[in-house]
Amino acid sequence: MTTTQIVEAKRLRTVRDVAEEGGVAPSAVRFYEQHGVITAVRTSGNQRRFDASAGCQVKVAKLAQRVGFTVREIAEIFQELPENPQPQDWARISDQLIASAERRLKELTRAVDAMRAGGRLCELNEALTAE
Amino acid sequence: MTTTQIVEAKRLRTVRDVAEEGGVAPSAVRFYEQHGVITAVRTSGNQRRFDASAGCQVKVAKLAQRVGFTVREIAEIFQELPENPQPQDWARISDQLIASAERRLKELTRAVDAMRAGGRLCELNEALTAE
DNA sequence: CTAAGACTTCAACAAATATTGAAGTCAAGC
DNA sequence: GCTTGACTTCAATATTTGTTGAAGTCTTAG
Question: Is the pTM value of this prediction over 0.90?
Answer without folding.
Answer: no
